[in-house]
TrEMBL record:
Residues 5-165 form the Cytochrome b561 bacterial/Ni-hydrogenase domain. Keywords: Cell membrane, Electron transport, Heme, Iron, Membrane, Metal-binding, Transmembrane, Transmembrane helix, Transport. GO terms for molecular function: electron transfer activity; heme binding; metal ion binding. Belongs to the cytochrome b561 family. It is a multi-pass membrane protein. GO terms for biological process: respiratory electron transport chain. Signal peptide: none annotated. The keyword Methyltransferase does not apply. This is Cytochrome b561 bacterial/Ni-hydrogenase domain-containing protein. One of its GO terms (cellular component) is plasma membrane. The chain crosses the membrane at residues 7-27, 39-57, 78-101, 137-156. It is found in: Cell membrane.
């Protein structure tokens, strides 16, 4: 049984975290706050692309992923709910951001390149507020995910946290 995630999976995991935090701290209207907005859009596009890379990597490395220790039915249900919610938000939040940006402007340049936008007829305010709400919810969920990893490390003294950290031992 494997006790560590493959190194490329670790890289995608931690790079995604850095980009999500960057997107969170540079949030706001990218058509008004140009520099921070460009970083926000870059981080969102990158998280969106990394979502698909993550899915591909998980299918490639499936046999090399650590297996969870036996859990109670309650723990297994909670684990799967959080996992699927995190994955859903990695996809949904950037899509809502793209819809919002498309509703705010007819064109947008990201580091000098035109970002493809879509024509829309939806309420950009509702989509934007949903994007922001889910971003805040995502940060709370990430905090709970980190707390769970720390509880596993310090209370249960298992290998859950170490499985996502790159150390020789």
């Amino acid at each position: 049984m494997k006790n560590k995630y493959p190194f490329p999976v670790m890289i995608v995991h931690w790079l995604t975290l850095v980009l999500v935090v960057l997107a969170y701290i540079t949030g706001g209207d990218p058509t008004v706050h140009l520099k921070s907005g460009e970083l926000h859009v870059f981080a969102g596009v990158s998280v969106f692309l990394l979502f698909f890379i993550r899915i591909i990597m998980i299918s490639i490395y499936r046999k090399d992923l650590p297996h969870n220790k036996p859990m109670s039915k309650y723990q297994k249900t909670l684990f799967l709910m959080v996992k699927h919610t995190l994955y859903s938000l990695l996809f949904l939040i950037p899509v809502l951001g793209w819809f919002t940006l498309s509703g705010l402007t007819e064109s947008y340049q990201l580091f000098g390149m035109n970002l493809p936008l879509i024509s829309n007829s939806w309420d950009v305010e509702i989509i934007g507020e949903t994007h922001e709400f889910l971003g805040n919810f995502f940060m709370v969920l990430i905090g709970l995910h980190a707390l769970a990893a720390l509880i596993h490390h310090y209370v249960f003294k298992d290998n859950v946290l170490k499985s996502m950290l790159y150390f020789k031992k």
